[in-house]
Design brief:
Shape: globular
Number of helices: 21
Number of domains: 1
Largest sheet: 5 strands, mixed
Distance between the termini: 49 Å
CATH superfamily: Cytochrome P450
Strand order of the largest sheet: 1-2-10-7-3
Structural class: alpha+beta
Strand content: 5-15%
Number of strands: 13
Length: 543
């Protein structure tokens, strides 16, 4: 190893602190060239661009078996998971997932169960003054996938299981309370599923024909999976499905920010819903980057990559690169209509390459089917959005709207109604409604919170949420409170750019999601932009 590689500063802490913005910022500074760094004490190189995707997913170039760190395995994927395999062993295990998750009839069946759970939930929401969409979506999707997979829902009719599945995803990329909750959640669910698998193997008949049964009896080249590994793989079916709750929260965010998209979903057909699902997956941050290890000495764009080097694929930057996506900061589902690029390596929120032979997620069809089924129903749900923090912090991985998208009764209505009209059938409880609204933070308080967190480096919440890293709220703080240019550069925003998302209808404030990229994003701009009701950007004078 060259001396300069040994002496290169380790970027693990900056990556944890800066989240989604870390790698795109390095790529921007390099002019798009490969970026050399160190991560977790290992030499690393970051790749970006269309040609980076097939290079990264070629198993003759990159392997996964030693790329995933222990904390990620102990929370997100599990020890012995398919994600840790390569070559024939990976393809043999992957065939199990493909058979279960790529079968059109099975995917439709799961989506149908989710629709039934949604309808049941909406009827129950009608008697509540307020719900939090993220949590409720995770519960109803968990119930649907557990029933579909033959897995008992568990305590509290699936709510405890949903909390554990969400915790595993929420805590994989951080330290502290969120990470500890993720480890505990995995330990509980692995033990529960291991017991079920041992029961199936003992009886040979229970849950016959289900995904749980298929995994329990699956044989790799070395024989029957041990019970622990089988439990891990069952979780790798139901956990990613429950994670669709993140995309549901983003879908609600998009509908609220750009009401025209909500109307298109209400009035459009399946093709419109599918295009909307793809654009949600492209536009909103979910996976920051992916990692693998060079299996031999390689060369990419003239850069030598030594065997054993950690290779990173910039996913978030890829989805916001104007060289790949025209107007990447425009939320525009129409880009996916008429045979758009949804199935190609252009769209990689769940990986690239071939699903059957590579590491692309086999559950991608399930994700799209669930969004395609549930997003139009969400669009038809009459609801109000109480004052709340709708900002999406880039420092938090995985991120989501800060307050989880609380929704309540629409103005003048007495209950939530899924039919498309306000239902006056239940008398409003004014005291509880006022309490619900009071839980939302005012814009001035949020701005003070952002500045305070920046000044003192404090986490935003008990669970480690770092609101200070939010490019939207930070830009708002700069614009309205006059944070200086040096602070703005540290905060990762452009001069005078955009504002926090507060719950106003589209067009009331400039939206950072629809604006030019922040300085710690893909491309810097010196002018601010505002979003119209379609989500398109229009230039306005600098603040």
């Amino acid at each position: 190893m060259e001396l300069r590689e040994i002496l290169r500063p380790d970027a693990t802490l900056p990556a944890l602190l800066e989240g989604y913005a870390w790698l795109p910022d390095l790529v921007r500074r390099s002019g798009g060239a490969p970026v050399r760094t160190r991560l977790m004490g290992r030499p690393a190189i970051a790749l970006h661009g269309l040609d980076a995707v097939p290079f990264f997913y070629d198993e003759q170039h990159i392997a996964r078996r030693s790329a995933l760190p222990g904390p990620v395995l102990d929370t997100l994927f599990g020890r012995g998971a398919v994600h840790t395999l390569d070559g024939p062993a990976h393809r043999a295990r992957k065939a199990l997932f493909v058979s279960l998750l790529k079968d059109p009839e099975g995917v439709d069946g799961l989506a149908g169960r989710a629709v039934k759970e949604w309808e049941t939930a909406v009827a129950e929401w009608a008697h509540r003054p307020r719900i939090e969409l993220f949590t409720e979506a995770s519960v109803l999707i968990t119930r649907a996938v557990c029933d579909w997979a033959g897995v008992p829902r568990g305590e509290d009719d699936g709510r405890a299981t949903a909390r554990d599945l969400v915790a595993m995803v929420d805590g994989f990329a951080t330290a502290g309370p969120r990470h500890r909750r993720a480890r505990s959640a995995r330990t509980r669910q692995e033990a529960r599923l291991r017991a079920l698998i041992e029961d199936i193997r003992g009886s040979g008949t229970e849950h016959s024909g289900s995904a749980l049964h298929a995994v329990a009896l699956h044989r790799d080249d070395d024989g029957l999976l041990d019970a622990h590994t089988a439990a891990v793989e069952v979780l790798n079916i139901i956990r990613p499905t429950a994670a669709v709750a993140w995309f549901m929260a983003f879908a609600a965010h998009a509908m609220h920010r750009w009401p025209r998209q909500r109307e298109l979903l209400r009035e459009g057909g399946p093709a419109d819903a599918e295009a909307f699902a793809h654009e949600v997956r492209r536009f909103y941050p979910f996976v920051p980057f992916l990692g693998g290890v060079a299996v031999r000495d390689l060369e990419w764009r003239g850069e030598r990559i030594a065997e054993g080097t950690l290779v990173l694929l910039d996913v978030y930057g890829h989805h916001h690169d104007p060289a790949i996506w025209p107007d990447p900061y425009v939320f525009e589902p129409a880009r996916f209509t008429d045979g758009g690029p949804a199935g190609s390596d252009l769209l990689i929120p769940q990986g690239g390459g071939d699903t059957a032979t590579g590491h692309r997620c086999p559950g991608e069809d399930v994700t799209v089917a669930l969004l395609k089924a549930l997003a139009p129903r969400l669009a038809r749900l009459e609801h109000g959005v109480p004052p709340q923090d709708l900002s999406i912090p880039l420092r938090r991985v995985p991120t989501r709207p800060v307050d989880g998208l609380p929704a309540g009764r629409p103005a003048g209505a007495h209950r939530l109604n899924g039919s498309g009209a306000a239902d006056p059938g239940v008398r409003s409880d004014a005291r509880r409604a006022r309490s619900s609204v009071a839980l939302g933070r005012g814009a001035g308080q949020r701005r003070r919170d952002v500045l305070q967190r920046f000044a003192f480096g404090r986490d935003g919440e008990e669970d480690g949420h770092q609101a200070g890293g939010d490019h939207q709220a930070r830009a708002d703080a700069e614009r309205e409170d006059g944070v200086g240019d040096d602070a703005a550069r540290h905060l990762g925003v452009g001069d005078g750019e955009s504002t926090a998302l507060r719950g106003e209808p589209a067009g009331d404030v400039a939206d950072a999601g629809q604006r030019a990229a922040p300085r710690r994003g893909v491309l810097p701009h010196s002018q601010s932009r505002s979003a119209d009701s379609r989500g398109r950007l229009s230039r306005r004078s600098r603040v």
